């Protein structure tokens, strides 16, 4: 794996997530795509298990840096990224609808776990927390598979998306 390219990608996506993504947010509930979640699923699908586990925890750490509380995202992203990497050894997740479903499920489950872990750290909860988690998961699952191809190009990973089988 090209770790320098990975570091540059994570740094750029973290800055975009913290600043630019707010411009395309649904303003009523502050629902915006989670670019780091999309990268988590991308690396869990397209890298080997060892690299996927390392990238999952790294992406979770980046999400915690820009998040409200330190700790919950690194645990939830690391856990569910690892589970997805092991699941990918059994089930191929190469088609866009399956990738969208994976992004949605990982987003919802990791958001739910991060919320529960945030409650343990006395983070205040809002009434519409689950609607926001659901909305972010849906928005990310709609945008995510389209961002896989530029990510694969940057990381020099062959996706075989347009080949005939």
Taking Cα atoms only, what radius of gyration do you get, to the nearest Å?
A: 15 Å
Structural domain tally: 1
**Spans with pLDDT under 50 lasting ≥5 residues?**
none
Order of helices and strands: HHHHHH
Number of helices: 6
Which descriptor suits the 3D outline? globular
Largest sheet: none
In percent terms, what proportion of residues is strand?
Answer: under 5%
Mean pLDDT: 89
Percent of residues in helical segments?
A: 55-70%
Distance between the termini: 26 Å
The secondary structure category is mainly alpha
Short description:
Helix content is 70%, strand content 0%.
Please characterize this protein's 3D structure.
This protein has one domain (32-155). The mean pLDDT is 89. The chain has 165 residues and is mainly α. It is built from six helices and no strands. It has helices at 3-18, 35-46, 49-66, 72-88, 96-120, 129-155.
């Amino acid at each position: 794996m090209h770790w320098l390219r990975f570091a540059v990608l994570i740094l750029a996506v973290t800055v975009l997530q913290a600043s630019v993504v707010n411009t395309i947010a649904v303003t009523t509930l502050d629902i915006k795509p989670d670019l780091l979640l999309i990268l988590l699923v991308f690396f869990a699908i397209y890298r080997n298990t060892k690299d996927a586990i390392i990238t999952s925890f790294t992406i979770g750490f980046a999400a915690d840096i820009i998040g409200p509380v330190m700790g919950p995202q690194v645990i939830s992203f690391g856990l569910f990224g690892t589970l997805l990497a092991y699941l990918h050894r059994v089930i191929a997740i190469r088609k866009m609808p399956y990738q969208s479903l994976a992004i949605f499920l990982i987003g919802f489950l990791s958001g739910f776990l991060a919320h529960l872990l945030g409650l343990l750290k006395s983070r205040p909860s809002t009434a519409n927390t689950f609607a926001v988690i659901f909305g972010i998961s849906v928005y990310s699952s709609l945008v995510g598979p389209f961002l896989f191809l530029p990510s694969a190009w940057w990381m020099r990973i062959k996706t075989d998306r347009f080949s005939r089988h």
